């Protein structure tokens, strides 16, 4: 895999080739997107590819091939890409970058059943290898519904596209990789079937599963915060931590997403992947190194030790939004959203309680919650510390003192907040909570790359650290399956009004243990 990349050496002779600060540039390759006319492709993938090109991180001969049913010529498809780039790219538009990128854009028309279309795809890639020097290195991005996977995988296998050809004596072997998007199944059993299906065609080390939360700077910074500093780690355990709240709140509704979301729900959509990955990064031990395998080993260890706290009636909550106000806008409830079954039982809010049964964490509850149409958009990990065992102040002086907290603000307003008690100026010894903030915007001048930029680049470089392996996916389903079964047997989610912080049962869930949710 190494050797497919090159490093930029911006003028400093002391910085070696192995200097990880140097930007890594992908080697020659082509990337095929299936489902190229979909939302994800338009809003995230094509803009990310342009942003990478604009940052000089794609090789000059890079090729992008769209595969879809529409009858486009290469130029028509290039116009679609251009439109998406102009609307959604993070970095400024530069004509010369676009001109170079667009020379490598191709389109293959066909359905997934269409053998001839896949043969055409193989021929197109071969031609690109010849014309643009992509060297037989091909990535296949499956931005398609999971029920289309078997067919596409079978076609890639049949046409030999999944297998790198033997390069002949002394020449470097080209690579083939597949990228898959969630949902990785809808429960443990289906995830195992899906993994088996994918691995029949692509060996595990060539499978890149996207969990875009792992591509976020703030999520990677969790590892820097924990393992590059000395002051947090000693207090990062049940000795000092009372509980942890991991919140992913969104203010958007589900209009336009019925096809994907109805029947899936909040727990499968984001707890199974994003939130359990955040939990794993928060709780794992320090890896021996940042080698991908070492990171996987530590994540797998904590995910294996993670258990639901029971009884599930009391330790979980789920809800479905009804009409209400999102700021000044009146919004409809889920059951009135276009395309949703008017009797849908799909939850749009989910909260669960977990324990991580390791020496470090035993006894500390981890509360995970997510919801659509909540008060505001915020994702954060709040580590809530125990109260001081003895307060030598008059009780009235500490009425406004809460728990110490370290809050990793994943988004928006990316940063970290430390919350602690401070004396209120004046003659008394009154103590009140104050915040100390680190904010990315203030500390760094460069803006953070989009998660998809980082992940697409890593995939093209063959760098798997930020991609969950199938064992992590299966362990996550093992954790979640009992809640899903419990909810399935248990009737309907509780209604909550759009624009609020979720159903009453979620508040009761924490109140039972004498705690309350943060209102970020
Ligand atoms: C996706 C979920 O994985 O993440 C969506 O399917 C959700 O339902 C989205 O809206 C949120 O991503 P972000 O990066 O905006 O937090």
Automatic annotation (TrEMBL):
NADP(+) binds at residues 69, 182. Residues 1-20, 495-520 are annotated as: Disordered. Residues 509-520 have a biased composition (Basic and acidic residues). Pfam families: G6PD_C, G6PD_N. InterPro entries: G6P_DH, G6P_DH_AS, G6P_DH_C, G6P_DH_NAD-bd, NAD(P)-bd_dom_sf. PROSITE patterns: G6P_DEHYDROGENASE. Keywords: Carbohydrate metabolism, Glucose metabolism, NADP, Oxidoreductase. It comes from the Bacteria. One of its GO terms (cellular component) is cytosol. Residues 32-221 form the Glucose-6-phosphate dehydrogenase NAD-binding domain. Its EC number is 1.1.1.49. Residues 223-518 form the Glucose-6-phosphate dehydrogenase C-terminal domain. It catalyses: D-glucose 6-phosphate + NADP(+) = 6-phospho-D-glucono-1,5-lactone + NADPH + H(+). The keyword Amino-acid biosynthesis does not apply. GO terms for molecular function: glucose-6-phosphate dehydrogenase activity; NADP binding. GO terms for biological process: glucose metabolic process; pentose-phosphate shunt, oxidative branch. The active site is at 274 (proton acceptor). Pathway: Carbohydrate degradation; pentose phosphate pathway; D-ribulose 5-phosphate from D-glucose 6-phosphate (oxidative stage): step 1/3. Substrate binds at residues 212, 216, 250, 269, 372. Catalyzes the oxidation of glucose 6-phosphate to 6-phosphogluconolactone. Belongs to the glucose-6-phosphate dehydrogenase family. This is Glucose-6-phosphate 1-dehydrogenase. It comes from Nocardia wallacei. The lineage of its organism: Bacteria, Bacillati, Actinomycetota, Actinomycetes, Mycobacteriales.
């Amino acid at each position: 895999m190494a050797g497919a990349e090159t490093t930029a050496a911006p003028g400093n002779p002391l910085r070696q080739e192995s200097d990880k600060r140097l930007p890594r540039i992908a080697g020659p390759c082509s990337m095929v997107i299936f489902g190229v006319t979909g939302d994800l492709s338009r809003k995230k993938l094509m803009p990310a590819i342009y942003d990478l090109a604009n940052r000089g991180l794609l090789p000059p001969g890079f090729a992008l091939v769209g595969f879809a049913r529409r009858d486009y010529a290469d130029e028509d498809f290039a116009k679609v890409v251009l439109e998406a780039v102009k609307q959604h790219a993070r970095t400024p538009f530069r004509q010369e970058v676009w001109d170079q990128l667009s020379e490598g854009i191709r389109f293959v028309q066909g359905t997934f059943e269409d053998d001839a279309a896949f043969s055409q795809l193989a021929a197109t890639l071969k031609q690109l290898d010849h014309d643009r020097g992509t060297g037989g290195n091909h990535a296949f991005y499956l931005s398609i519904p999971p029920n289309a996977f078997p067919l596409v995988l079978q076609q890639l296998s049949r046409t030999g596209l999944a297998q790198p050809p033997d390069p002949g004596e002394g020449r470097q072997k080209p690579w083939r990789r597949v990228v898959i998007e969630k949902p990785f199944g809808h429960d443990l059993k289906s995830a195992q079937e899906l993994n088996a299906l994918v691995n029949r065609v692509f060996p595990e080390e060539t499978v890149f599963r996207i969990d875009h939360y792992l591509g976020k700077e703030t999520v990677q910074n969790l590892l820097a915060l924990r393992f590059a500093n000395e002051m947090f780690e000693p207090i990062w355990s049940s000795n000092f931590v009372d509980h942890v709240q991991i919140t992913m709140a969104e203010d958007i509704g589900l209009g336009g997403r019925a096809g994907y979301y109805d029947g899936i729900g909040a727990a499968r959509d984001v707890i199974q992947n994003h939130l359990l990955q955040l939990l794993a990064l928060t709780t794992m031990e320090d890896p021996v190194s940042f080698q991908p395998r070492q990171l996987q080993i530590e994540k797998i260890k904590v995910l294996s030790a993670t258990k639901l706290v029971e009884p599930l009636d009391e330790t979980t909550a789920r809800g479905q939004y009804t009409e209400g106000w999102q700021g000044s806008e009146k919004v409809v409830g889920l059951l009135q959203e276009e395309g949703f079954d008017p009797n849908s039982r799909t939850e749009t809010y989910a909260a669960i309680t977990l324990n991580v049964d390791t020496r470090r964490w035993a006894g500390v509850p981890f509360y995970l919650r997510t919801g659509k149409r909540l008060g505001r958009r915020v994702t954060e990990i709040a580590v809530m510390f125990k109260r001081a065992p003895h307060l030598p102040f008059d009780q009235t002086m500490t009425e406004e003192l809460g728990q110490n907290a370290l809050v990793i603000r994943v988004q928006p307003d990316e940063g970290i907040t430390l919350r602690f008690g401070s004396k209120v100026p004046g003659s008394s010894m009154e103590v009140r909570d104050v915040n100390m903030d680190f904010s990315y915007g203030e500390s760094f001048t460069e803006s953070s790359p989009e998660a998809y930029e980082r992940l697409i680049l890593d995939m093209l470089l063959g760098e798997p650290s930020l991609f969950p392996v199938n064992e992590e996916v299966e362990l996550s389903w093992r954790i979640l399956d009992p809640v899903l079964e419990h909810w399935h047997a248990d009737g309907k989610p509780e209604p909550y009004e759009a624009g609020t912080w979720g159903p009453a049962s979620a508040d009761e869930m924490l109140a039972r243990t004498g705690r309350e949710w943060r209102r970020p």
